[in-house]
Structures are given as C-alpha cells and as structure tokens.
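REQUEST FORM: STRUCTURE PREDICTION
Request ID: SP-0412
Submitted by: Lab K.M.
Chain count: 1
Length (residues): 80
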Amino acid sequence: MVGIMQKARVGPKGQVVIPKIFRENMGIVEGREVVLSYDSGKVVITNPSEPIDVVAERMARGRVIKLSPRQMREMAAEQT
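STATUS: Completed
RESULT:
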C-alpha cells in the first residue's frame, strides 16, 4: 500500500531533506534522530518511539509490564 509519495533530491554530501509533509506526519523535528534501514532496494526512515520500542520488545517476549506516565518519561530521559 502506498500512502504519500514525493520526490527528493540528493545533495552533494549525500544528504536528503525529508519533505515537510513526512516530517509533520511522523513527528520528526530538527535534531531528532531517525533510524535508516535498507530493505529490498528501499531505504526506510523510521521515527523511533522510545520507550515504546522497549515496551513493545518486552511484550513480544511475553513480559507485559505496566508503567505510569512518570516512569515512561524517566525511561525516555535515560535513553537520550
């Protein structure tokens, strides 16, 4: 399924500007780290959601945990 598609140009240093519509939809702001992966001829840009990734990983292992909003903020602070 294809959602939004837009062309971008590669600059002299190999830099690509993520179009505004993508940044807004993904919540990507200046200084935010993103994850780049290469899969089947495609470059995929992912906005990591910490500590959601940590929680999802634990849930996938069958270890369900409960966190308060304060605990989630503390975990996120530890990750940065």
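NOTES: The first helix runs from residue 20 to 26.
Reviewed by: T.R.
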